Amino acid sequence: MSDKVQNRLQARNAGAFVEEERHGIMLAAKVRTVALALVLLWQAVDSTETGPAYYFNLLEIFVFVLLGGLQYLVAQTRGSGPRLQFVFVSIDCILLALVFTLNSPFDDDPIPPAIAMDTARFLYFFLFLMQASFSFRPLLVVWCGLSIILTRFGMWAWFLSQSSVYSNLDIEEPNVEAFLQAASDLDFLFLGYAATELLVVLIVSSGLAIVVARSRRLVKNLLSTERKRANLARYFSPNVVNQLSDSDAKIATPRQQEVAVLFADIMGFTKLCENANAEEVIHLLRGYHDRLGKAVFDNQGTLDKYIGDGLMATFGTPDPSPNDAANALNCAFEMIDAINDWNRERLLSGTDPVRVGIGLHWGLVVTGDMGNEHRLEYGVIGDTVNIASRIEHLTRDLDTQLVVSEALVNSIRKSGSVPNLDRLTFAGYREIRGRASGVKVWTYSST
Questions:
Q1: pTM of this prediction?
Q2: Which of 53, 151, 208, 373 is geometrically suited to a Cys-Cys bond with 106, CB 3.0 to 4.6 A?
């Protein structure tokens, strides 16, 4: 695959992830806003505060509700939204730190440092880590962890700068009795808690970032695998798709090999559709392609392409097997049987029968990806393909549904498998249009 195609696929994957990140941020902002709105409602009903302090406390919660709504609106817009999420994370952490650190201007009874720095309050910061994880962006999770660490460190620094506040480092005789006595003082802060809190944030944010990164990698691998399977399913039978997708086979690598090539075409297609509308024509082709395509896949064939009312298939691609020629012939017989069954249904519904012409040939071809960086398709080329197409046209001259080259018949005999060769009749040497030499062919006998 060319670098341009690879770059385009990577860009498409990146675009898909950006879109999923946007939806994740929207979901997280929506959940956060609804949850905080419920908290605001509960606080409004259950708060013991009165007067300005009551409304100030509600305002603090309402600011976070507004921030959640703003984050949702920004996430809806494509462009600068993802970058602004880093700003929102920092603002959330700073505001929560200020709410826990600074007392309400309407509160006559300020919160002591030991209560303001209580671990239970610190746990609210982890809600921001959860929200960042919704974004599916490892870097945003790491940034959120760093923002929490910095703001929490700022809270510790602020309180320890107060003249009335002291820590375990200030205890002159650090023994058990001294620590127990200090622990009952609301101006005492134990620095061991700070180290534990910051270490936990560092570990949790790093772990969440790794989980998100692994999830992204898993999704990328699944997308790549499913894309490969979808592309392979356009050409190969399901068992071949499973084999190729479960291995590192390089089917795009050009190589030369012997294969069986099958061409099938509707005889008299123009006349069959001259009075049909567009919907009826498409319905006819879909029914025709479905039946013939199933026969190809059931016989381990590769569907090379649909050509209007025609079809090209190969047997022995991407990997050859001893039964490729036999599978091709059996596929042709199944196609004829499927069309005959379909015609019985069509006659009952009052529609004209479909007559198919099939040509089979065996020989060397070149296989691999063909096209340019804008469109690549797996295919086969070579003189064998041209001869197979010409052999299919002989079905009109010989008035039969199937013409098989002797090269394919000989390949079947050489493999030791002779399936239904008694249904073929030798038709001698035939000229091939556009070629100086002809080929020996066999024709299908329905009796």
A1: 0.57
A2: 53
